[in-house]
Amino acid sequence: xxxxxxxxxxxxxxxxxxxxxxxxxxxxxxxxxxxxxxxxxxxxxxxxxxxxxxxxxxxxxxxxxxxxxxxxxxxxxxxxxxxxxxxxxxxxxxxxxxxxxxxxxxxxxxxxxxxxxxxxxxxxxxxxxxxxxxxxxxxxxxxxxxxxxxxxxxxxxxxxxxxx
Length: 164
What we know:
Layout (H helix, E strand, L loop, with lengths): L7 H137 L2 H17 L1
């Protein structure tokens, strides 16, 4: 026998053993191996789908968060604008109220000054009239103390009375 070329019997038994081993593997091992591979493939598919769904959910959450942030910013801007408007209105109201109050105080001061002026003028008139009366009384006393002066005064007054 030749060591290099195997004999026909050896080939036959090798093929037969191989086929028997293949049959046993197919009957007992092939199906569990294929099931495990299919299950692993299915698990990978499910994991990929879950990852894709999670990615979509994250994108949706991100867009929702961006919308909420934009809405919050818009509300904040609106509130800031409203607060500025209220502040400006309060300042303008205070200015106009102060201006009105100042004008009212000026008007009251003018009225008070005018009334004080009128009172002073009335007092001055009273003093002038009383001084005038005192002077006239003194002049008349001096004039009337002399009999000749009295006669001349009476004649003068009668003369003036005739002219009227």
